[in-house]
Amino acid sequence: MKKMILASVLILLFFGCSDSSKDAQYIVDKSIQAHGFDNLKGKQIHFQFRDYAYEIKRGSFGFEYARKRILTDSLQNSKQLRDYILNGQFTRKIDKETIALADSISAKYYRSVNSVAYFFQLPYGLNDSAVKKEYIGVVNIENQPYYALKVTFNEVGGGEDFKDEFRYYIHLKNFKLGYLSYRFFTDGGGIRFRKATAEKYVDSMLFLDYQNYKAPITTDLDSLPYYFHLQKLSPLSRIENENIQVFELE
Length: 250
What we know:
By secondary structure, this protein is of the alpha+beta class. It has a single domain (2-248), classed as outer membrane lipoprotein receptor (LolB), chain A. The protein is 19% helix and 46% strand. A 7-stranded antiparallel beta sheet has the order 6-5-4-3-2-1-14, with helices on one face. Strands 7-8-9-10-11-12-13 form a 7-stranded antiparallel beta sheet.
């Protein structure tokens, strides 16, 4: 009986085309269009996530991701902390002073900034040159059909977390990203499953909030929709982006 339920929840309908990379590319391109991110270049986006104000810029220079917050000491003196990644290079500043950091600390902050920016821009990042994507079928989640994509990364250009592995679930009809799951190895590693819980349209762009779940580290990624259906995943956190603003890049 359990196997029958699994089959009904995770039924994979493989298409006749043998070139799964072409299928995946088509699906990703359509999803980027559905989210309005095909015009992301030349934009500057501001948003608030938890304790930080974030900025994303994409232009002819490449990209810049930044976060900032105000630090106040016991005497109520205030300084601005700003972390930013410019074309892959991390820098921390307090006011106008660049702060020297140990490589391990710099890498930790880099991952933190990059992770927020990456998930915020999905599915845009799925066309990065380091991404290897593969169409693996159609999965039924909460009575809706989704294209399932497997995503891994090339070591060259994939960053220190190039071993991470993802699944993306993109709606069969409207091409919106509905769910995703991933296995990561940095910071102790883990398994995550995310459900898009809110759609926020700003300047014809679609941004998503998520409910984040965790699963035992040995869990197979492709089984996560099944365990989600059975309510066997543990709620971990909510990913909510506030005060989203989109501007033309000056």
